[in-house]
Design brief:
By secondary structure, the chain is of the alpha+beta class. The chain has a single domain, classed as Gcn5-related N-acetyltransferase (GNAT) (Aminopeptidase, 3-Layer(aba) Sandwich). It is about 30% helix and about 40% strand. It contains five helices and seven strands. The protein has a seven-stranded mixed beta sheet. Helix 4 links the parallel strand 4 and strand 5. It starts with a strand and ends with a strand.
């Protein structure tokens, strides 16, 4: 069973380790410990810890835009891939975004070479609305309307 809760400072070192795993590192731009701790202090940034069967299994970073009632889904990192934890966590995060943050839209960017991520996002109803480039790599922007 997947549960989310707001992250605490003492979990950040574990997040850094999770980001440096070989599977996660090719799909994200890892933050340093200091970058995570700084971001955690910003009021518009929300860190959610993912728990699977009571154990810390990953984390999500959101950036809230209250003016537009939207949330940028900045990052999801799951320690063990292929067990459905990420997909369940995204669904729980969407519910959190509606219930706790009052958001109506969620958007994200994903590297074009991240086929697994694209598949999950599309399966969950995200649709591409633009493309861009980041350091020579193609980025796809996807969004989804959230229902209260």
């Amino acid at each position: 069973m997947i549960k989310l809760r707001e992250s605490i400072d003492s979990e950040i070192a574990l997040f850094v380790e999770m980001e440096q795993s070989t599977e996660a590192a090719e799909f994200i731009i890892p933050y340093s410990l200091t970058q995570h701790l700084d971001a955690l202090q910003k009021p518009e940034i929300v860190y959610l810890s993912i728990f699977s069967d009571g154990l810390l299994a990953g984390f999500i970073i959101l950036a809230v835009d209250n003016v537009h009632r939207s949330v940028e889904f900045r990052r999801i990192v799951v320690a063990t891939m292929g067990q459905g934890i990420g997909q369940s966590a995204i669904q729980a995060m969407e519910a959190y975004s509606v219930e706790k943050l009052g958001c109506e839209r969620i958007w994200l960017d994903v590297f074009a070479h991240n086929k697994r991520g694209q598949h999950i996002y599309e399966k969950l109803g995200y649709q591409q609305f633009k493309t861009a480039e980041y350091q020579g790599a193609e980025l796809l922007y996807l969004d989804k309307k959230l229902s209260p």
